[in-house]
Amino acid sequence: MNSRRKFISSSMAGLAGITLLPAIDAFAGAPIATDDNSREVFKLRFAIVSDGHYGQPNTESDKFFDDMVSWMQAQYKSNQLDLVIANGDLVHDRPDLLPKIKSEYFDKIGVPVYAVPGNHDHADAALWKKVFGYDDNYVVEKGDIGIVFANTSNVKGEFICPDLAFLKSSFEKFKHKEVVFVILHIPPHIWLPEEKAAFAECPEVIALLHQYPNIKAAFHGHDHTLDGVRYTGKFPHFFDAHFGGDWGTSYKGYRIVEVNMNNSINTYQVNATMNPQINRMKL
Description:
The structure is a single chain. This protein is α/β, with parallel strands linked by helices and about 280 residues long. It has 5 helices and 13 strands. It has helices spanning about 60-80, 100-105, 125-130, 165-175, 205-210; strands at about 20, 25, 45-50, 85, 115, 140, 145-150, 180-185, 215-220, 230, 235-240, 255-260, 265-270. Strands 1, 2, 3, 4, 5, 12 and 13 form a 7-stranded mixed β-sheet that branches. A 6-stranded mixed β-sheet has the order 6-7-8-9-11-10, with helices on one face. It starts with 17 loop residues before the first strand and ends in a 12-residue tail after the last strand. The relative contact order is 0.21. Mean pLDDT is about 90; it is low at about 1-15 and about 25-35. This is Metallophosphoesterase. InterPro entries: Calcineurin-like_PHP (IPR004843), Metallo-depent_PP-like (IPR029052), STPP_CPPED1 (IPR051918), TAT_signal (IPR006311).
C-alpha cells in the first residue's frame, strides 16, 4: 500500500486559488488558547475526517472515535469551526452500527456533521437517510459556498462512479456560487497502474469537475496512506489520511479547510496523534 503514497507533482499554479499550508501537529487535549476578539474570521471553516472504520476487529474503535470527537471539540473551542465532513468508511462492514456512530459520537461534537458513504459502510439510500436525515447524494449551501456530496459505492462495497446526472444538476444549481467543493470518498481517477484495484476511473466525472471554474477542489478518503494533494490537469484532489482502522499513515488526523472573506482558500493536514515518524519504511 505504501506505493500509493507517491504523489503526482504539479506547479502551485494548479491550485486555482487554494494555498497549501504545511502539515501541523496538534494535540487534541490542549487547544490553543485564543482571544475571541483576535480570532481571524472566515467565511467558512470546516474539518474533514474519514475512515474511522468503527467495529473493525482487533482495533480500538471507541478510542479512535472518542479522539476524533475531542479533536473536533478542541477545534471548535480554539477557533471557528462551522461544520465537520465525515468522508466515508464510518464503520467497518457493519451498517447496523451507523446509528451508534451518529448518536454517540457525531451528535456530541457540537457543530453539524455531514457524512457521505464509503465502501465499507454498505448502506443503501434508505438506511442512510433514516440514520442521518439526508440522502446519500445531496448538497449543502453555506451562503455563496456550495458543497456537493456524492456516493461512490453500493451495498456490496463495490467502487462506483458517482451519479453523473446528480453531479451535473448540482453543479448547475451552484454555478453562480463563488466557491464549490466536491466530497467523494473514492477518487474518480487512477493515477498509478497499481491503483487499478483501489480507485475508480470516471473520465466523465473528471471532465465535469474541470468544466466549472468555481469548483475549487475535490476531497477524498479511502486510501489511508494519502494525506496530500494530487491533480487531474490543474484541478486538485485532496486526501486526509485516516482517524481509525489498522493501516495507513503512522499518525491519525484530519484536514482543515478555510475559506477567507475574499474567497481565497487555505487547507492543511493535522497530525492529531503527534506521531513523529513519517514515511517509515523497512527495506
